[in-house]
Amino acid sequence: MKSAVYTKAGQVGLASIERPQIIEADDAIIRIVRTCVCGSDLWSYRNPEIEEGHRNSGHEAIGIVEEVGENVTTVKSGDFVIVPFTHGCGECDACRAGYDGTCDRHIGNNWSDGVQAEYIRFHYANWALIKIPGQPSDYTEGMLKSLLTLADVMPTGYHAARVANVQKGDKVVVIGDGAVGQCAVIAAKMRGASQIILMSRHEDRQKMALESGATAVVAERGQEGIAKVREILGGGADAALECVGTEAAIDQALGVLHNGGRLGFVGVPHYNNRALGSTFAQNISVAGGSASVTTYDKQFLLKAVLDGDINPGRVFTSSYKLEDIDQAYKDMDERKTIKSMIVMD
Ligand SMILES: [Zn+2]
Ligand SMILES: [Zn+2]
Hints:
The protein is an alpha/beta fold. It folds into 2 domains: about 1-150 and about 290-345, Medium-chain alcohol dehydrogenases, catalytic domain (Quinone Oxidoreductase, Chain A, domain 1, Alpha-Beta Complex); about 155-290, 3-Layer(aba) Sandwich (Rossmann fold), CATH 3.40.50.720. It contains 11 helices and 16 strands. It has helices at about 40-45, 95, 125-130, 140-150, 155-165, 180-190, 205-210, 220-235, 245-255, 295-305, 325-335, and strands at about 1-10, 10-15, 30-35, 55, 60-70, 80-85, 120, 130, 170-175, 195-200, 215-220, 235-240, 255-265, 285-290, 315-320, 340-345. Strands 3, 5, 6, 7, 8, 15 and 16 form a 7-stranded mixed beta sheet that branches. The radius of gyration is 20 Å and the shape is globular. The structure holds zinc ion (2 copies). One zinc ion binds near residues 38, 40, 59 and 85. InterPro entries: ADH-like_C, ADH-like_N, ADH_Zn_CS, GroES-like_sf, NAD(P)-bd_dom_sf. Its cofactor is Zn(2+). This is Zn-dependent alcohol dehydrogenase. Belongs to the zinc-containing alcohol dehydrogenase family. GO terms for molecular function: oxidoreductase activity; zinc ion binding.
């Protein structure tokens, strides 16, 4: 079968690899219907030390269950499913508390990879997979795009709002105008925020966020950006949702909050020098991590998409065939598209 592999920094190609097999009793083999490139994949893509033939870090998909292990009873061959980037067991303390993105049964993270391929092996399939009613042919392309966001970016945007405890009437600032930031705007609106400011310098992304519920956009960065936010809100924000993963983005988030405000961070951190003590003087609550994809999808996000209440699929502004995966990465890296979707045959 065909699978995307990193060939060198800034280049992705296709390799022929063995089709995956069931290994554990809780595995499923999934035939991929739609997959995509994540902002986090671009870190590997740009890495000058990437080895030729390195497995792709793709981790978001919707697909058809081909085969299941003997312990899998919740889905069967032929079912259409959301393939989350996480593999919660559904039974441990973390999963039961609604933090399946950091399931206690996994050492380190529990993320998928290698999903930019024709087939994948998915472990902890019995609880983590989310069944979608019907078959892909029952849905419009727009709806398939929204269903695909439920594998990562929509639950991740929602997670930022949940861990920052966004409440009805809150003033919220979203840092990051990529797919996750756009979904965080949708999530803040779902939770009843009264004002939502997106920090963005790109007109197309500003427009998309304003259509999804943002009430203002701020293009300025640093101290200037903080001052602008405070001017619009008449003070600091109740919650800041950080969807980038850089130290500058964390600084921006901390800077826009009023004392006692809440920071939710979901950008995969590419820094490790942020001292917790720096938030003491402001009484800032800080929480963040990997999203609870299965919990949110099962509880309300799948329903919100199917009912047409939210339309996160708009973040996919370009579609490609698997053969054109290199272009899909390139266009996203050069910000020609917000998020690249891969349509499988
Ligand atoms: Zn992702
Ligand atoms: Zn668990």
